[in-house]
Design goal:
Rossmann fold, 8 strands, about 325 residues, Arc Repressor Mutant, subunit A, 6-stranded mixed sheet, 2 domains
Length: about 325
């Protein structure tokens, strides 16, 4: 299996380094261990040229992975129509209209047409969408980029809760460290046993969802109306939710609010309000000693059972897991003084 990693100018290298390290570890592990039924003959090419057409195209059984962003952390992608994305997302909206980016998207299109598996993570998913290979497909990207991606590529079925989505020769992954999940998926395509071995060596756990990390206030900031709605919901968390009352309070109709939240978040106003409730509930569960019933009441739900049902529906988790996991707690040992 031959793997080519395409990088363009201005790329932040740490994500791609992790991807190549994972693939390289797979190659070494396959040579050392009898646990893998087959070896991974991996050639991870660092194609740093901003002229991707100069690179040799991978074989039809190979895969090409794409990931790129500026050192400032703002995403950069290919062509765009003026005004097609909210102007607040300047990195996506105003950058990279040059020939190098056009060649990158053409490279992706040509590879996909030859039957090559193509994959991208974080801002790299924008290259796949620009190339048209995600149209009509289920895909993911960084939750932070969801509003811009959704506005720009309405033909893509975007799910920003997922960390990794793969179907019919195309794979997409979430933010920077999801590069690791993407690389491990490529190894898994060749050998399940080898993928498990690599995961153990690199301490890669199950991260099937990025929903826990998403911040509603950041996503809402892409639209003035949605941001106002998010603030209104937080100010009235303990009260029964009335979409009509909320819309009137922020100066729009209920129908306009529905359109804005769907366009920005891919969610109805009620579903987005529940995301805000979950965000606040998760904070209280992790950082206070309040009972689950008290937490439920603090976010406007009847009882712990209602909160637990919402957590299962939207996070695929439980209240106990949510209380104990914490974004920064995994693997941290407490030493005795």
């Amino acid at each position: 299996m031959h793997v080519a990693v395409l990088l363009t100018g201005g790329c932040v290298r740490f994500g791609s380094q992790h991807r190549v390290r994972c693939l390289g570890n797979g190659q070494q592990s396959a040579r050392r261990s009898a646990a893998a039924a087959t070896s991974l003959g991996n050639h991870a090419g660092w194609l740093r040229s901003t002229s991707p057409h100069r690179a040799r195209a991978p074989a039809s059984r190979g895969a090409a992975g794409f990931g790129r962003c500026r050192r400032s952390g703002r995403p950069r992608c290919g062509r765009q129509e003026p005004g097609s994305v909210n102007r607040r997302d300047r990195g996506v909206n105003r950058r990279d209209r040059g020939p190098a980016q056009r060649r990158a998207t053409e490279f992706v299109t040509a590879a996909a047409e030859r039957g090559v598996v193509v994959a991208g993570a974080c801002t790299g998913t924008f290259f796949l969408a620009e190339a048209g290979v995600l149209n009509g497909r289920h895909a993911t990207t960084s939750w932070r980029l969801g509003p811009a991606f959704r506005a720009r590529y309405p033909l893509v079925d975007l799910d920003t809760r997922a960390t990794l989505v793969h179907n019919s020769g195309v794979a997409t992954a979430a933010a920077a460290f999801a590069h690791i999940d993407l690389a491990l998926w490529l190894v898994r395509c060749r050998s399940l046993a080898l993928a498990e071995l690599v995961a153990r060596y690199l301490l890669i756990g199950d991260r099937s969802s990025q929903a826990t990390f998403a911040m509603p206030s950041v996503l809402a900031s892409q639209s003035a109306e949605v941001a106002a709605f998010e603030r209104w919901v937080r100010d009235h968390l303990t009260e029964p939710l009335s979409i009509r009352e909320a819309a009137e309070a922020i100066g729009v109709s209920a129908r306009t609010l529905q359109r804005r939240t769907m366009a920005t978040m891919g969610l109805s106003p009620l579903a987005f309000a529940n995301e805000v409730r979950l965000d606040e509930a998760a904070h209280l569960l992790r950082n206070t000693s309040l009972s689950t019933d008290a937490v439920a009441a603090a976010v406007g739900l009847c009882n712990a059972s209602s909160l637990g049902q919402l957590v299962r529906q939207r996070r695929g988790s439980t209240l106990r897991t949510l209380r104990g996991e914490g974004v920064l707690r995994a693997g941290v040992a407490r030493s005795e003084d």
